[in-house]
Every structure is written in C-alpha cells, then in structure tokens.
Amino acid sequence: MSTPLIDVGDVFFGDVATETANKARKRLLDAAGAYERERFQDARRMLENVNGLAPDVPEVLELMGLCAYRTRHWKKAVKELGRFHELTGSFDQHPVIADSFRALQQWSDVEETWKALAAASPHPAVLEEGRIVFAGAKADQGRIKDAIRILENANTSKPKKPKVHHLRSWYALADLYERAGMVGNARRLFADISQANPEFGDAGKRAMSLK
C-alpha cells in the first residue's frame, strides 16, 4: 500500500463520538491511499463520506479539493481549498486555487490569489509554483511579454545548486521564450536545466531541438 498523503493519526475530527472518529480515520486513510494511487474519483467518494461523519476537518477538505482539482472540477477545488485556507491560515494550496481560477478564466481571481500568496511569503517552492501559474495565466491571455517578465524578475540570478522549484520556473520561462520566438534564450535555459539535472523532463531534448 502506498504511503498516505497525510498522517491520519494526527487528524482531529472534532466533537464526535470515538467510534465515529475511528470510522472517519479509517476511511480517510483509505482515501489517502487511493489518492496516492491516482484513483481520484474513488478517493473523492470516500472523502465525502468522511466529511459527512465529521464536517470541516481541514485535512479532509484539503484532500477533497485536490481530488476535485485532479478531476477538473475547478469550482469545487476553489471552494474546498479556500475553506481549508480559512480554517488553517495555510497558503500551501494557493497555487492550486490560482490554477483552478486560471482554468475557469477568472483572471482577476488568479491575480488576487497570487497577490495574497506573494504577500504571505510562504515556502519558496509554494511561492514559485504560484508565480508559474500567474505567469501562465498572463500567457493564456496572449500577454507573453508580461508572463516572461514575471518569471524573469524571479530569476535574476541562478543558484549553484538549483532545487526542483528553480528548475520548474526555468522550464516555464524557457517555454515562454520559445513561444515568443526568443529561440536563443530558450535553448540556453533548457540547456542550463539539463546540465543541472539531466533527468528533468525533456529539457535536454528541447535544447538540442532548437536552432
């Protein structure tokens, strides 16, 4: 069995009977395992049952929202992850919320979500993921130069040992360079990614394909 997404032993199910809490915990464990195996619809059904037993449990709402996102139910994802944020104050899922708004083409909501995330200064990986979504939303609107500027401003210097979130940002920027016809920039950045991590996606192949 896959390792659960969350430690269900630490989940508090509120003021419910011990028997109900134990039942909810078991179903949450099953749902987390189903999510890890990418059985998102099955996980969602289990989680809805848990939510019925013990409403407004943050860990349940978070996983429900992620299942909704994975199955392209964007409005549900926004609602449930938004409620998760209200209950916990965590900004960890703001990039997912922003990307759900992006899928709905609610551009002002994408921007407001990004601004809230940027102001919170969360973990760099979370912040960078949100920035990638925000830049992608600009590109979706045909504002490629704005999208490039957003990512360029975050990549004014390259760390000697880039982490995954750096490489993801570089890849998104390189892709935008290619779309904008800035082939030399795209080729160099894809090559930098491949040099930093030869196993990172198709960066090496894309670097070689660009002339």
Summarize the structure.
This protein has 211 residues and is mostly helical.
Q: Can you tell me about this structure?
A:
The radius of gyration is 20 Å and the shape is elongated. It starts with 17 loop residues before the first helix and ends with a helix. The chain contains eleven helices and no strands. The chain is 71% helix and 0% strand. α1 packs antiparallel against α2 and α5 packs parallel to α7.
* β-strand number: 0
Determine the N-to-C terminus distance. 46 Å
Helix count, DSSP H or I runs of 4 or more residues: 11
The biggest sheet, with number of strands, parallel, antiparallel or mixed sense and barrel status, is:
none
- What series of H and E elements makes up the topology? HHHHHHHHHHH
Overall mean pLDDT stands at 93
CA-based shape: elongated
In percent, how much strand structure appears in the residues?
A: under 5%
Helix content: over 70%
Strand-pairing-aware structural class: mainly alpha
Instruction: Work out the radius of gyration.
Output: 20 Å
Low-confidence stretches: none
Q: What topology emerges from the helices and strands here?
A:
Layout: H1 18-36, H2 40-53, H3 58-70, H4 74-88, H5 94-103, H6 107-120, H7 124-140, H8 144-153, H9 164-179, H10 183-196, H11 203-209
